[in-house]
């Protein structure tokens, strides 16, 4: 039991040196690859963040993997992310394979129970997100979208004041279930 609380000065020094070393490696990799490395734009990005955290944690508090091995693991993760990002940018199939499709779960003030069931989102989850978005009346809601990251976006405004622009629902499954208002837009921003 006493071993659980004890650590040798050498082990403690190794933790400090590993932490500093990995911090330097991580900063260098972020500078090379960019801040998108820790974004939550897709489920792949989230998995990347978890994997990096796992490598950091296991290296800092245990003697295995050693610092050099962990640095190579981090560089490999960043490399895989850069390749996936390039593929997503230049090919449509990679985006479809890697990313989840955003899903409409509320159209106006109507909850889309079939989509909520598909996404395993409860009515209470939606009410909580509406409160979080400062929605004061369900009539204010234009659309609620379960994003590719698992976050829920609430698009709302004063009733009868502003119509929802269709470009905000580009790529969202079942977006056609949203009433865009009297003047449905042609085309949309950005193509």
Topology record:
Elements: H1 2-5, H2 9-33, H3 43-61, H4 67-90, H5 92-98, E1 103-107, E2 110-111, H6 113-119, H7 123-132, E3 141-146, E4 152-156
Antiparallel strand pairs: 1-2, 1-3, 3-4
Structure description:
With 191 residues, the chain is of the alpha+beta class. The protein has 2 domains: 2-97, no CATH class; 103-177, CRO Repressor, CATH 3.30.240.20. It contains 7 helices and 4 strands. The protein has a 4-stranded antiparallel sheet. Strand 3 (141-146) and strand 4 form a beta hairpin. Helix 2 (9-33) runs antiparallel to helix 3 (43-61), helix 2 packs parallel to helix 4 and helix 3 packs antiparallel against helix 4. The termini are far apart.
Write a concise synopsis of the structure shown.
The chain is 50% helix and 9% strand. The protein has helices at residues 2-5, 9-33, 43-61, 67-90, 92-98, 113-119, 123-132, and strands at residues 103-107, 110-111, 141-146, 152-156.
Helical residue percent band: 40-55%
Structural class: alpha+beta
Strand neighbour order, sheet with most strands: 2-1-3-4
Number of domains: 2
**How far apart, in Å, are the first and last alpha carbons?**
66 Å
Q: What global shape is seen?
A: elongated
Largest sheet: 4 strands, antiparallel
- Helical stretch tally: 7
Beta-strand percentage? 5-15%
């Amino acid at each position: 039991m006493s071993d659980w609380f004890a650590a040798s000065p050498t082990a403690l020094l190794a933790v400090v040196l590993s932490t500093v070393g990995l911090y330097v490696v991580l900063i260098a990799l972020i500078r090379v690859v960019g801040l998108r490395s820790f974004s939550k734009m897709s489920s792949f990005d989230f998995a990347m963040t978890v994997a990096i955290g796992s490598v950091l944690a296991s290296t800092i508090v245990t003697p295995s993997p050693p610092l050099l091995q962990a640095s190579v693991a981090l560089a490999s993760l960043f490399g895989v992310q850069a390749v996936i990002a390039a593929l997503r940018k230049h090919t449509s199939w990679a985006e479809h394979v890697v990313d989840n499709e955003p899903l409409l779960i509320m159209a106006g003030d109507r909850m889309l129970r079939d989509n909520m069931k598909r996404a395993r989102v409860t009515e209470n989850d939606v009410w909580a997100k509406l409160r979080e978005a400062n929605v004061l009346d369900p009539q204010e809601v234009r659309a609620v979208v379960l994003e590719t990251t698992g976050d829920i976006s609430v698009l709302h405004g004063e009733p009868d004041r502003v119509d929802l622009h269709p470009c905000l629902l580009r790529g969202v499954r079942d977006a056609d279930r949203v009433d865009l208002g009297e003047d449905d837009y042609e085309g949309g921003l950005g193509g």
